[in-house]
Amino acid sequence: MRLRTRLLVFFQGALALVLVGFSASLYLLVSKHLHHQADERLEAALNTLAAAAEVHPDGVEWEPEQRSLNFGRRAVEGGFLWRVADSLGRRVDGSGPGPQAERLLDLPERGAAPTRRPVTRTDPSGSSWRVLHRRLGSANPERAGSTTVVPNPAIGGRFYPSLQLAAAVSLVGVHESLSRLALVLVGLSVGLWAATMALGGRLCRRALRPLAAMADAAQEIGGDHPDRRLPLPATGDELDDLGRSFNALLDRLQESFERQRRFTGDASHQLRTPLTTMLGNVGLALRQERTAEEYQQTLLLVQRKARQMRGIIEALLFLARADAESLHPELEAMDLVTWLEQHLRSRHDARRGADVRLEIDSQEPHRVRAHPSLLGDLLESLLENASKYSDPGTPILVHLHREDTWTLITVRDRGIGMAEADLAHVFEPFYRSKAARGRATTGVGLGLSIALRLARSLGATIEASSRPGEGSSFTIRFPSGCQPAGAQGSADSRPMVTSSRIPG
């Protein structure tokens, strides 16, 4: 099911529930109101009938001729019936004799007390009526229990021990009104639902049109057009955010693709150059007979170029393994103070080992989680880079210090430095700054890329800062998760910096 269909079904279902609930609530409220009006009409009718009777100590006198009644004798035609009966249930007055009136207006049981609330009854034709009874009795208890009717000579009427008043109102009009209301509610609800169905379909199609356009554009993006992007609806809503996020993803993918393409081109160039040199010199040596010394020089050149190729290939394999996230060493807790002193002492005879100096903020343990072998490779990469791009005899500083919750190792030289524009690319494979390319040093630009991969594998970060002609600094930043309690000093209470040369 398409998204547009699901949205339309959801909202139309919700609208249907709202319309059904509203119509049912309105129908019930109107029904209650109409039935309440019918009951009020019954109460008013009985009050009028009671006003036509006068209660005396000797009985109840019925004198409708001397009182104005609002009931006509043909009230039954208007859906209204009434009757006045004596204590024995004999009819005294009413809206007209007839079996319909007698059955509707009779009490359920002869002599039973009338109920205070109206009751609903059905006549033989199936019509519903609301019926209400009331009893008027004599103030004399003895007389109230009598069944004898006493004549009243004064008016020519009679005293009745009690009178039973009954009135009934037809609910046919109420039912007809409710039926018309139900038809109106059903018609309006169905019409409104159908109108919103048509309008909702158009609105859904219009609202999701940008999404459909983005889907079509995504299908058209192929490997030969990595620069294509999704059209943005510029609506400022979630679809706009989705398009921007997807385009940002495509930007990152294109950047990764471009990096990979540059990496492949640079790698092939770096491998092709020594290979071409090797084949050229071997071919030149094979053209004619050479002396043993010439053959030896050719073999030495081939050996040097082969070692260069091996270094490039090993570096490329390491980067490939790191990119594949296969480099997950087992980290262990170690004290950098002790480790740095031992490591730098062991490489004193290495290239420019005598120029390397170690500075430590404090002789207290600087504990981090790392892998000693990989950390040694990382530090050697930074020391080798500092050795290449600074003059012999200038110091190379290895500085161990703390900064907030971090432990830092900084390798600083006083070499040629780099321009600010080069810092953004210094860790990219095969990248060499203009100043580095102009310097007569060997290298292919993979050392710092390997250093970055090593730092990431150790859970650390690496940062570079430099100024042309003043040197460069590379800082390895470790989280101080293994620091002992109280070992971390505040910025105001940092210990004095100590400096020492690594002994031979």
Written account of the structure:
With 504 residues, this protein is α+β, with helices and mostly antiparallel strands. The chain has 3 domains: 3-177, Beta-Lactamase (2-Layer Sandwich); 238-323, Helix Hairpins; 332-501, Heat Shock Protein 90 (2-Layer Sandwich). The chain contains 11 helices and 17 strands. Strand 1 and strand 2 (59-62) form a beta hairpin. Helix 1 (3-51) packs antiparallel against helix 4, helix 6 (292-323) packs parallel to helix 11 and helix 8 (372-388) packs antiparallel against helix 11. The protein is rod-shaped, with a radius of gyration of 53 Å. Residues 72-77 and 483-504 have low confidence and may be disordered.
* Stretches with pLDDT under 50, minimum 5 residues: 72-77, 483-504
Q: What is the end-to-end distance?
A: 77 Å
What would you call the structural class? alpha+beta
Beta fraction of the residues? Answer: 15-25%
Annotated CATH topology of the largest domain? Beta-Lactamase
| Helix share bin | 40-55%
What gyration radius follows from the Cα positions, in whole Å? 53 Å
Write down the CATH class of the largest domain. Alpha Beta
For the largest beta-sheet, the strand count, sense and barrel status come to:
6 strands, mixed
The SSE string, one letter per element, is HEEEEHEEHEEEHHHEHEEHEEHHHEEE
The count of strands amounts to 17
- Tally the helices: 11
Side by side, the strands of the main sheet go 15-16-14-13-11-17
Query: In the residues, how many domains can be counted?
Result: 3
Would you identify the CATH architecture of the largest domain?
2-Layer Sandwich
Taken from the alpha-carbon principal axes, the silhouette is rod-shaped
How would you state the average pLDDT, rounded?
79
